[in-house]
Structure formats: C-alpha cells, structure tokens
C-alpha cells in the first residue's frame, strides 16, 4: 500500500495549490539504543514525549467487505426481471464478500488492509483478490488487518484474526531490516518520509519535483480525519524505529473517534498538505 498510496498521492497533490508553512525540522536520525519515550495517539495527531536524546509487503489498496461497494453501480438490464436482478446482485455480493465472516470481519464498512512479510518477491501481493485469501500464509486470513472498534465506534486497534497488531508486526519487521530493500525500492527517505516534527507530532514529508515546479510538502497526520488509521499506524511504526523509540509489546494504545469516509479523508488530506 505504501508504494501505491504515495504515488497516487503525488499525482493528486501535483495539481493542488497548497499554502506555505514554516520549514519542518529534518527527520530525527536513528540511534543505536532505543529510548523509552511514550507515544500518544488522539484525533489531533500522533505525539511523543521528548526523548532523553535526539534521535509490497503491504496491500496495494484496501479490501472491501461492504456490499454497497460492489453493487452501487449495478443496474437492472433491459428485459431483466426485478427478481433476476436481485438474484444477480446477491450472487455478486456473495462471491465477493463470503470470505469476510471467515476472516472475522464484523464491520463490513470498516477499513481493511493486508500486510505480511514473506521470503518471496516484495512486489508480490500478499492478498490474492481472485481466491480471496492471503498468498503467503497457511492461515488464509492471517495477513488481513481490520479496524477494531469499541461500542461507540471508536477505533481502538488494527488487528488480524490472530489478535496481532499491525503496528507491532510492521515495527519488528522494519527494525530487523527485513523491509529495507522494499523501502529502498519505494525511495523511502528520498522521496517521502514519516518523522516526528518539532512539536513531536507525526508528519509525512513528500519531496518536491523541481522539473514540474512542485515544492516539498508536509502533512501533520490526523488519523481518521486526513489519513487512514491503519496507514497512520504503519507511519507511526516507521517513525518510531527511525527515532529509536521502543514499541510496547502490546502495541500503541489508540482511541480514534469514528473515522470519516475514504472520500472525506482524501479531501482533508489534500487540504491539509502545505508547502515545506
């Protein structure tokens, strides 16, 4: 998702006029010994307490279990009986979403993605959209990560059906060096980067494109408002590793009010990006 998301984001933002903001501090350099700084995540952003010292495997898109996503453009055909149309509609929904219950998806409209490190080509998709199964695990749904919500609809975690947290898995794989070639191929650190700014909040930086007169841009990430919660967790994991911050064994505690729709999040993201 990182590669797809960042490149799609660049294409959109290249045509968007953004405002000037103060130049952000450069990304903190990693240190050999992690600190024990605490990460706090709210709807206002991701913030860390000051440290004592300065310091392919993701799905190319999201997965939908929402029946409306598959049928919104479906229309009754000429001479098709209403009953036949409903049967065709139900068959389509069944073929596309029958796996969702098996994967433990209880909120069909919640955001779903996939991640798994494997020994194969990092360009190979971890989610097989044809078989509706994970491509590199014995458990066909171990790579699927979904939003976990409380009774009020607040997102309190991103987990798979084994209870593993997305940020913990990604943090450990990134920190161990398993994802280095993957990140290098996506030009992480050169074309884009997550980091904690001078206010100790998570920002996304995009490099400029001088030939197209496109400046460097930054975004203070607000999960569920201008950034998907799941992808915010990935960015947080990367920035924590780069800043030498330990990931708690049980992951980062979050409570994000019910996220906006994907369309609203995309609109807010474009609005909130500023020139660096």
What does this structure look like?
The protein starts with a helix and ends with a strand. Helix 4 packs parallel to helix 6 (229-242). It has helices at 2-13, 67-71, 82-102, 166-175, 180-185, 229-242, 262-272; strands spanning 19-20, 39-42, 45-48, 112-114, 127-128, 133-134, 144-149, 155-159, 192-196, 202-206, 217-220, 274-275. It has 276 residues and is of the alpha+beta class.
Keywords:
single chain; 276 residues; alpha+beta; five-stranded mixed sheet; three-stranded antiparallel sheet
State the assembly state of the protein chains: single chain
Q: Helical segment tally? A: 7
How far apart are the termini? 24 Å
Strand order of the largest sheet: 1-12-11-10-9
List the helices and strands in order.
Answer: HEEEHHEEEEEHHEEEHHE
The number of strands is 12
Integer tally of domains: 1
pLDDT average, as an integer? 83
Please bin the fraction of helical residues: 25-40%
Task: Note the main sheet.
Answer: 5 strands, mixed
Class by SSE composition? alpha+beta
Strand content: 15-25%
Poorly predicted tracts of residues: 8-37, 49-55
Radius of gyration in whole Å, from Cα?
A: 20 Å
How are the SSEs ordered, and which strands pair?
Layout: H1 2-13, E1 19-20, E2 39-42, E3 45-48, H2 67-71, H3 82-102, E4 112-114, E5 127-128, E6 133-134, E7 144-149, E8 155-159, H4 166-175, H5 180-185, E9 192-196, E10 202-206, E11 217-220, H6 229-242, H7 262-272, E12 274-275
Parallel strand pairs: 1-12
Antiparallel strand pairs: 2-3, 4-7, 5-6, 7-8, 9-10, 10-11, 11-12
Helix pairs in contact: 4-6
